[in-house]
Amino acid sequence: MPLDDFLGAVSGPVRQRGVGVIAPFDLALDRELWRWAPEEVSLHLTRTAFVPVPVSVEQANLVSDEASVHAATRDLLVPEPEVVAYACTSGSFVDGAGGQRRLVEVMRDAGAPAAVTTSGALVQALEALGVSSVAIATPYVVSITDRLRAFLGEHGVEVVASVGLGLHGQIWKTSYRDVVEIVRAADRPEAEAMVISCTNLPTYDLIGPLEQELGKPVLTANQVTIWAALREMGLRAMGPEQRLMQAVDAPAA
């Protein structure tokens, strides 16, 4: 088609609606985050500063430093995102419910029109599904997993079992088979849902098959982060055969 005919036939590009994403410095799963985003949504990512510390409670505290999150939010504002998401599970639960709320306040104070965190999004998803008891599978050492248990407890969610891989780094290299093994080990009949923690743990292709096998919702870190961010915009996340997407309508923005 001649160029002038093409320009006469289209009115593009399609207007994009933005989600700003603050990721921890070691996030390697940018593409997985995009898989939940509809065509008209762009994700604008920035990262926290590198710290020479293995995955630990200390690292979670460093990547959630309020001054760093404030600066990262400011870095994202030029493309005018409608919401900013802090996409680190441990960084948003390490200081409990109060710490999670402070991160949202920091992002809003820095100029974010709306703000969500991964751990806050998890609580929203559990509430939306009416879930009050979970099993959790994590890549973490015990001290971090225990902080997640405590965070959920603050929100009235009972953790009936938890299993962690005990990793200190390179979490993104975990195989799907290893993820399935810790999920199966953690699951209990009394758990109403399965929670898989960490935005650096690959899960997208597993959610539907795991839900079919377990017979319950499976909520993962990247899934709930993008779901909650899009929900702030009045949009649905993409996620075929994922119960969270099927069961919960996006509210009007």
Automatic annotation (TrEMBL):
Q: Which molecular function term from Gene Ontology is one that the record holds?
A: isomerase activity
For this UniProt record, give its keywords in alphabetical order, as a comma-separated list. Answer: Isomerase
Signal peptide residues are none
**Designated name of the protein:** Maleate isomerase
Q: Which organism is it from?
A: Saccharopolyspora dendranthemae
